[in-house]
Amino acid sequence: MFKINTDLHTHTVASGHAYSTVDEMARGAFNKGMKLIAITDHGPKLPGGPNVYHFGNLAIVPDELYGVRIVKGVEANILKNGNLDLTDEELGYLEFVAAGIHRLTGHNLNNKAEYTKATIEAMKNPQLDMITHPVQREYPVDLEKVAEAAAENNVILELNASSYNPNKYKTRGIKSESLKLLKLAQKYGFKIAINSDAHFYDKIGEYSTLNFIFESEYFDSELIINSTVENITNYLDERQRRLNKLKKTV
Ligand SMILES: [Zn+2]
Ligand SMILES: [Zn+2]
């Protein structure tokens, strides 16, 4: 079985509805043989989510705990017109910016065309790295259009293991659409991340609900950005160079 020892989407107690601290997450990751995790707590618009101080202060967390690289990030909320719930300056404190559409965030988006448009607009933000769970029952998007925009804007699209967790109140994934995402990655060349979306330490790196992806004839590890730690560290270095350059030209 293809083994992935990184996870670009995890939540801590700071999210308000997750149950482990950063230290517990790091130890949990170490015990599972993981080499890198991104801490991506929800943006401030989600009920119970952290306020902006949380993100501004995140840099005090060590870059490495128990030998696990800790990437400081966010899962921001996509709002109307593709705006995010942190300003560009606030996003600038972080190493990795993910974003997705979530309930109860006041996004005011009402149908597939609007979810698609907001997602595509969000991807135009040069600080955005990854769209979380682009496949979700509640907020369906036109995957082909989102895939095209991901390739154009160099944004990662996620396959989210937690979307298929049978213990969740409602599973949010749609298998046929997740498989379609694999095919679209081959067609357009954007990168995919395989993530847990862990809200408890034991779920870090838990990807078995995505076995239907690993077993698919369309699965190609070359398309998976978090297939190795080096892929991600190279990506993060390149991202920083690109954003520094952009800062200088403004
Ligand atoms: Zn999410
Ligand atoms: Zn999440």
TrEMBL record:
SMART domains: POLIIIAc. InterPro entries: PHP_dom, PHP_phosphatase, Pol/His_phosphatase_N, Pol/histidinol_Pase-like. One of its GO terms (biological process) is bacterial-type flagellum-dependent swarming motility. GO terms for cellular component: cytosol. It comes from the Bacteria. Residues 6-80 form the Polymerase/histidinol phosphatase N-terminal domain. Pfam families: PHP. SUPFAM superfamilies: PHP domain-like. One of its GO terms (molecular function) is phosphoric ester hydrolase activity. This is PHP-like.
